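Thread: quick sanity check before group meeting

JM: Hey all, I'm pulling together slides for Thursday and realized we never actually wrote out the predicted structure for the chain we discussed last week. Dropping the sequence here so it's in one place. If anyone has concerns about the input, flag it before I start.
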Amino acid sequence: MAESSTGAARAAHRRSAPPRGAGRPRGAAPPRRDGALSPGAALVAVGGALLLSGLVSRRYSPDPSHPDIARWYGRLDTPSWKPPDPVFAGGWPVLLTLMAAGAYRLMRQPRSPARDEAIALWALTLALVTAYNKVFFGARSLTGGVAEGALVVAAGAGFIARAGRVDGLAAASGLPLTLWSVFGDVLTEDLRRRNPDLDGRQPPGDPAR
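JM (edit): ok, ran it. Output follows.
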C-alpha cells in the first residue's frame, strides 16, 4: 500500500512539473554558464576593437590629408629592400583582421586562465599596433617606433603561446602579424640609423609642430 502511494505521488509530481526549457522563447538557446560569448557578442567585441583601432590610426596616416606627416615620411632615407607603401597600407588590416578572427574563436571558448590571457594579449597587441602609428608617424619618433615594434612582437608571441593552449587555429592566426612585426621592427631600426636628423624632428625648413 505504501509503495502504491509513493508511486502515485511521483506520477503526480511529473505531471505538475513544467517541461524542461519552459519559460524560454521558442527556439532560444539555453543560457551559457561557462563564460563563452555568443557569436554576436564575440563579433561585436572584435569588430568594435578593430574599428576603434582603424579610426585612431587613420589620424596619423602619411597621406595627402596629413601633409606634415607625409612630408616627413617622404624625406626619410629608406633601404632598397623596403616594400612599397601600398603593401604596408593593405597588409596591416589583413593581418589584424586575421588575428581578430583568432580572438573571436577564443571568445567562443569556455573561460579558462589561458583563454582569458590570450584574449588580453590580443587586445594588447592591437593597442600597441595602434600606438605605433601615433609614436612613429604622429611624434615622428624613429627610436620610439623601434621600442614600440619590439613590444608588438613580444605581445604577439605571448598571444600565440597562450592561445596555443586553447585553440590551435587561434594561435596560428597571430603568427603572420608577429612575423611581419619582426620584419617591420628591423626596418624601423634601419630607418633610425639612416635618419638621425629626422628622429623626432620636422624636416629642415618645415614649421615646428
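AS: nice. The two ends are 96 Å apart (CA to CA). The longest helix spans residues 113-138.
JM: adding both to the slides.
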